[in-house]
Specification:
Blueprint (H helix, E strand, L loop, with lengths): L4 E4 L3 H12 L4 E5 L2 H9 L3 E6 L2 E6 L1 E4 L7 E6 L6 H8 L3 E9 L6 H8 L4 E7 L2 E6 L2 E6 L3 E4 L11 H5 L4 E3 L3 H22 L6 H5 L3 H14 L6 H14 L6 H7 L10 H10 L5 H16 L6
Parallel strand pairs: 1-2, 1-6, 2-5, 3-10, 6-7, 7-8, 11-12
Antiparallel strand pairs: 3-4, 8-11, 9-10
The structure holds ketopantoate (KPL).
The site of ketopantoate has 11 residues, from helix 6.
């Protein structure tokens, strides 16, 4: 391949994607946030550590800053948190061309639509991934669970050929002709799990018990919301999906609980916030979701974290 693949964001997911590309010999550039982050990487000889089941691989990667060069970016994976997407993209906007293609890996919804609006001439693809990873250090990622990535174009076009690179990198991915319902279903699952884990500081497995009698009405509201967005599944199916994710990830900390523990800004605005705003626009009454949103915002404020 002649064009390098750029990855914006060196969080756990960005590192996991960069590691798999580096391992496959794909020319991949990891774009870092600031000069301090770059120095930290250079001090470690730009070596990325990928840990999986007790084994650690050392992988040399190419790191750069958004303004390190004027080289055009044609294929860009955006792996920042949802709230950081807009700022991160502005930092590299001058390097994007009319034919650049962007892949968004964020949780929730809102950052994807904002990016499509900001970059109307570029092809913006949306993705949902179930890979589990966390960072042990700035250059050290632990691959906790092998998942799958669903990718699609909100304009419902076929997959671009360059995505074959992902297969070359050993990334298990599938093209979804209609990606928005996939993202909505993931958002509903995140609305049912993440806020409860953050409020009660509990692992995913304890969610139904901690939510108590409000859990069923919460799922019912999410089901109505999904219906209003054209996502076709029954309440029973949604309930089963949520419970099977809870079981499969019972011992895990949700991404929101991890953010709270790390004193980081959460993605509340792109998960519950987006759900409540969309419900209002659709004229739906969602008292349980609204009150959960309010409780979580109060909780975050008490912890000194942004409520959005
Ligand atoms: O996606 C997740 C997250 O933590 O954000 C779930 C599915 C809840 C797994 O933890």
């Amino acid at each position: 391949m002649s064009e390098p693949l750029h990855i914006l964001g060196a969080g756990s997911l960005g590192l996991l994607w960069a590691a798999r590309c580096a391992r496959a010999g794909i020319d991949c550039r990891l774009i870092l946030r600031n000069p301090a982050a770059l120095r930290e990487w250079l001090d470690r000889d730009s070596v990325l550590l990928l840990e999986r089941q007790e084994t650690i691989e050392s992988l040399p990667v190419t790191v750069e800053l958004a303004d390190s060069s004027n080289e055009p970016i044609r294929h860009l994976i955006i792996a920042t948190k949802a709230w950081a997407v807009a700022g991160a993209l502005e930092s590299i906007a001058s390097r994007l061309q009319a034919d650049s293609q962007l892949v968004l890996l964020q949780n929730g919804l809102g950052s994807q639509q904002a990016t499509s609006q900001r970059f109307p001439s570029q092809r913006v693809l949306y993705a949902s991934t179930t890979d589990g990873a966390w960072k042990r250090a700035a250059n050290h990622v632990v691959w906790a669970g092998i998942g799958q990535t669903l990718l699609g174009d909100p304009r419902q076009q076929p997959a671009p050929e360059w995505l074959a690179l992902l297969s070359q990198a050993g990334i298990d991915w599938r093209w979804e002709q209609d990606i928005l319902p996939v993202l909505w279903l993931k958002l509903a699952i995140n609305c049912a799990i993440n806020p409860i884990t953050a409020l009660h500081d509990c692992p995913n497995g304890e969610v139904p018990e901690r939510a108590g009698p409000l859990f069923a009405p919460l799922l019912a509201e999410l089901h109505t919301l999904l219906g209003s967005q054209g996502v076709q599944l029954s309440l029973t199916e949604l309930t089963q999906r949520v419970h099977s994710v809870i079981q499969a990830t019972a011992a895990n900390s949700s991404s929101m609980r991890q953010d709270v523990h790390a004193g980081r800004r959460t993605e509340i605005n792109f998960i519950l916030g987006h759900a409540c705003r969309t419900a209002r626009l659709a004229g739906l009454a969602t008292p349980v979701l609204d009150s959960l949103h309010q409780q979580l915002q109060d909780h975050l404020i008490n912890l000194g974290l942004p409520p959005a």
